[in-house]
Amino acid sequence: MNNNAKKTAHEPFLHITKRGDISTAGAWSVRLIAIAVSLLVSAVVVVLLTGYNPVQVFKAMFSGNFGSLSKVRTLFQNIAMLLCISLAVTPAFKMKFWNLGAEGQVLVGGLASAACMFYLKDSLPNILLILIMFVASILSGIIWGLIPAVFKAKWNANETLFTLMMNYVAIQLVSFFIMLWVPSGSSVMGLINASTKAGWLPNLFGQKYLINILIVAVLTVVMYFYLKSSKQGYEIAVVGESSNTAKYIGINVKKVIVRTMTISGGLCGLAGFLLVSGTNHTVTKDLAGGMGFTAVMVSWLAKFNPAVMVLTSFLIVFLQRGAGEIATVCRLNESVSDILTGIIIFFIIGSEFFINYKINFKSKHKEEK
Amino acid sequence: MSEIALELRGITKRFGSVTANKNVNLCAYRGEILSLLGENGSGKTTLMNMISGIYYPDEGKILINGEEVVIKSPRDAFDYKIGMIHQHFKLVDVFSAAENIVLGLEEQGRYNIKNATQRVSQIAEKYGFDIDPEKKIHEMSVSEKQTVEIIKVLYRGADILILDEPTAVLTPQETQKLFNVLRKMKEDGKTIIIITHKLHEVLALSDRVAVLRKGEYIGTVITSQTNESELTEMMVGQKIDLNIKRSEPVNPQKRLEVKNLDCKNRDGVKVLDNISFEAYSGEILGIAGIAGSGQRELLEAIAGLQHIEQGEIIYNDPKTEKSENLKDKTPLQIRSLGVRLSFVPEDRLGMGLVGNMDIVENMLLRSYRKGKSFFLQKKEPKTLAEKIIQQLEVATPSANTPVRRLSGGNVQKVLVGREISSSPTVLMAAYPVRGLDINSSYTIYNLLNEQKEKGVAVIFVGEDLDVLIELCDRILVIGEGRITGVVDGRTAKKEEIGYLMTNSNGGKDNE
Amino acid sequence: MLSTICAFINAAIVQSIPLLFGSIGEIFTEKSGNLNLGIPGIMYMGGISGIIGGYLYEKSADDPVPLLLVLIPLISSLLGSTLLALIYSFLTVTLRANQNVTGLALTTFGIGIGNFFGGSLLSLFGETGSISLIKTGICYKTPLPFYGKLGLFGETFLSFGFLVYLAIAIALISSFVLNRTRVGLNLRAVGENPATADAAGISVTKYKYLATCIGGAIAGLGGLYFVMDYTSGAWTNNGFGDRGWLAVAIVIFAIWKPKSAILSSFLFGGLYIICVYIPGLSSSAKEIIKMLPYLVTIFVLIIISIRQKKENQPPASLGLSYFREDR
Does C316 sit within 8 Å of B94, measured CB to CB? Predict the structure, then answer.
């Protein structure tokens, strides 16, 4: 009666099922293989573009990162900043709240610091000024993070799109203040308080950025234990896993959303403070430089584990700086680092599939039957 | 009678070690309404899913109009003019009725929703449906959505219609309307198979009744030649001796009093209607009923997870001898009143436990707030986890294994173990042995009995009548959100409970 | 005064076209339930692949044919952006990777490719200077032949290259396809409720792939328009700016409706340049005006979530991957 139906109704050759049984070691070895393959592909890409042999390429990458003391210092500074923002977004992600607004939260934090420096100048003792900047930055970050959080908690507004839009509001806000502060109509703000160094984080043991790095190191440890061992961290995990279970044991989900975004936004504000007070001593609309987005990937790749994030942010920064060096040596554009970052992330997120799913091949004769 | 439209021969379907259908033979004629009757878990839906292409039988043959056919997908079923209306509707909320009806169809010619709308109206007129094809699904009542599903099947030219518990979501008036429509379809020469467990509906509507029990085909009778008691007997069968030990309640005291409780679900449909009962300490109160009769909502209302429209839930504290009303309290507030209420929910990994967390962390769900420290205290839960693993013989590599990796029985041991560890005064368990093997089931029964002997008021929602009769001291029977009877577990007959379960309308004059 | 207004309208239309391409592409993609945050990267990719195609042709042909000057960049642009959309589809649909992370990585990747080749194309071929495809640019900017005869009206509305009309045509066609065809119905069902679509015999995977790739190709044209018409064949690194994100904003502002996207793009394009036409505006106030598109988008987002009108919500399964056995 119906041949057509018989023909189209064969069982699929490939059958994909969810698996729940992979061990942690197995999962990490899949990820490591993915990283290895992605590095191989990146090497091929670079070799094709530059005509260098792979050994030269890796040498250049290495010297770009560790070539001199100042390079090492910048390397660690960059890792620290990326790590700081990654740590900031992690509690939100663990709760399955997609905070894509780190870029903006960092910016308003930096803007607050810059504003304090610009208006207060050296009218206060430096330590007091820095303290005020610190608090102002964190508060601004919190405000920027809380706005989408409140609308999410109260009306379930889509936080992905909301936080994304907040970034550009922040960028324009920064541009606005730069225009306001720079009299010449130039869109670039020079160093603030260049002569007095008011509001600049001092060098520690004569090392630039050391304070930044130490603060982020402490923050990493704190965040690790906050997520792993604190009651609040536990609540975040439960809300992220299942809001049904959260209700069953009496967690107030709305409260957790608001509280967690306070932390997330506040830490982004802190990153803004470190970037302005401890690094750039000025504010630009590129202050976060896309790190707010890169942090999303760093945090995701590390499966929201702050300890692993140290490694993933190292990987990304190493790659970016190494690629930058290759670009300089070969007189190519430094954007090659973005291409490589993209490739590596594609491979790692793609590899998650092989951790979460199992591919079963249907045997042929069963199909015939 | 007229010719055979559909015939099943020796159909068997297994899921792992569980046999859902065993050697089922069945036939349905053209122009008749056949009822498929059976208790929860008797394999009715599984059987029909094999005809509609959701599952594929392990053994046996399906014949359509006398020809053997292979049905491997819903598409194939459509091609053989078979359509099934599932209990859970598959509709796109923001689409109109007509758009949902033509979704996925590959008709000839240009897409024209106006023509489709017209055809829908024609079908509706022919069978007497009441529907606005341009109305959006999210603006519709449950019965309207069901109508859309039925028209969807008819639009695709189905001659054999299978309806899975269609009246479960309808009011009596809506049910009458549906029956009229079904009768018209029958006159039109269609074959209608209706899965149900409501006896009065079976008798009112169908021409013949086929009965399944525990996956096996019991027989088919002609409706006009049978009666309710014969059908009940076919459906529930003889009592089986399970040998669950049962002690006499010692010094029972009123622990929980539920008074005139009304609840509505998210769609605003009344799911609990004037429920009143008491639970005593030192006894197991069973709750029997067809799945989805309001059992879940009842337990969740007591646990503070369900909004209560009306009524009271009074808890009598054994220590202070004070009474508290739990209405409108959150789970946390209930706890802070000193009410030691434990709840083993039906959805173990979606509500009671977190699948991705290990056993220790799952212990923490109940106890993590303890103490003033900012940090979690993991020592106690770790000891507890190890104690549960040892005492309940949980098969797990370690206490740090995520619970989703454990088998169903072990997951349940972890959950029940945690819930009884807080030495509750009230323990509620919803379908605690569903999907468990015999040994694990007995572990759970013993645990519940132990709690009872300790003086806990145990509320047990079950589906297996044999178990309810052997385990419980009293059994509360619910039908369609109403209490249809309370029986003594020691003297109750299976048929009696089966009758109360399936006869929610007759429940009142039975008392 | 009138001429100023007409000049403003003309400029606003020019500004709106990349946004329109981008938002239509994203609407198409999002209707299938894929939130492709890689659209900004795809638009860069569309621009640079057009540039590469045009560059290679201008370089190789002594006497370039105008038709090929248009077709070669057009085709290479479509190929480039479709390729990126394909990567996104493979990762999120087949491998069920997280859509947000994949999208952001794709944006990094696409902008990287754009700026890399934009900055290094010439040096890869041993040349110096910056890319400027004058001949190609002229072809893309050729207006309708009769516009000069229509006076101010022609000047304001008809003085554009063909991509402008293509953008509006694509928007109207998209609206028709989404709302008036079987394919559109099926596509919307996939984005709203993939399980239902699956049960109705619609291939969820096929629709997600097709919508994402076609959407990506459309968005890529926005990048092509920018480099070929707006900047007349010249590439500046990061010159495209954050227009990609503005396009994502328009999708929300237009509440996922292609026809509204036309007006929204025009509005956003106008806001982008209105400062030039308001005399005596301080440079800081200009920055505030540039903030407006994002502010009104947030406002719309808040309103639709408070009102909870079903028809105005994002596609219900937006951002989620579909796995049949999860049901």
Answer: yes
Please name which of A73, A88, A101, A75 lies closest in space to residue A219, comparing C-alpha atoms: A88
- pLDDT tens sequence across B377-389: 888 889 999 999 9
Average pLDDT, chain B: 87
**What span, in angstroms and rounded, lies between the C-alpha atoms of B189 and B127?**
12
Helix (H) or strand (E) holding B324, with range, is strand B323-325
Domain C2-320, architecture per CATH = Orthogonal Bundle (1.10)
- The pLDDT tens digits of the residues spanning B88-114 come to 888 998 999 999 999 888 777 778 888
Is there a contact between C67 and C53 (Cβ–Cβ < 8 Å)? no
Q: Which residue of C has its CA nearest to B106?
A: C182
Which residue shows structure tokens 């976060």? A288
CA of B187: how far to CAs of B30, B126, B130, B190, B217, in Å? 10, 12, 19, 7, 28
Is residue B431 within 8 A of residue B462, CB to CB? The reply is yes
Distance CA B436, CA B73 (A): 30
Residues contacting A5, CB < 8 A, separation 6+? B75, B76, B79, B80
Q: Are C49 and C79 in contact (CB under 8 A)?
A: yes
Question: Which of A355, A189, A5 minimizes the C-alpha distance to B74?
Answer: A5
Supply φ then ψ for residue B246, to 5 degrees: -140, 125
Residues 6+ apart with CB under 8 A from A204: A210, A211, A214
**Cβ of C192 and B93 within 8 Å?**
yes
- pLDDT, position A8: 37
pTM: 0.87
CB contact under 8 A, C197 and B74: no
In B, which residues are within 8 Å of C182 by CB distance? 102, 105-107, 111
Separation in Å, CA of A134 to nearest CA in chain C:
26
Where are the strands (E) in B361-444, listed by range?
426-430
Angle between helices A336-356 and A306-329 (to 10 degrees): 150
Degrees, nearest 5: CA angle A62-A63-A67: 130
> Two tokens at B423?
């030495």
Domain ranges of chain C: 2-320
Distances (CA, A) of C211 to A161, C79, C86, C99, C256: 20, 15, 10, 15, 14
Going from the N-terminus, what domains does chain B have, and what CATH number goes with each? 4-236 (3.40.50.300), 254-340+423-510 (3.40.50.300), 351-422 (no CATH)
Residue A243: CB atoms within 10 A of its CB come to 15
Phi then psi dihedrals of residue B439, to 5 deg: -60, -50
**Helical spans, DSSP H, in chain C:** 2-31, 39-60, 66-89, 99-124, 134-141, 151-157, 162-180, 182-192, 194-199, 204-225, 243-253, 258-277, 283-307
**Could you tell me if B287 and B460 are in contact, meaning their C-beta atoms sit under 8 angstroms apart?**
yes
Binding-site residues on chain B for chain A (CB distance < 8 A): 64-65, 67, 69-73, 75-76, 79-80, 303-305, 330-332, 335, 343, 345, 347, 350-357, 361, 364-366, 368-369, 373-376, 378, 402, 404-405
pLDDT at A142 over 90: yes
- Structure tokens that stand for C22 in this block: 């981008």
**What is the DSSP track for A181-206?**
H-TTS-S----TTTTT-TTPPPPBTT
Q: Which residue has the tokens 């930096």?
A: A110
DSSP assignment, residue B353?
S
Closest among C249, C210, C53 to C133, alpha carbons compared: C53
Average pLDDT, chain C: 88
- How far apart, in whole angstroms, are the C-alpha atoms of residue B362 and residue B383? 13
Torsions phi, psi for A51 (to 5 deg):
80, 5
Q: Which of A152, A104, A168, A169 is nearest to C301 (CA)?
A: A152
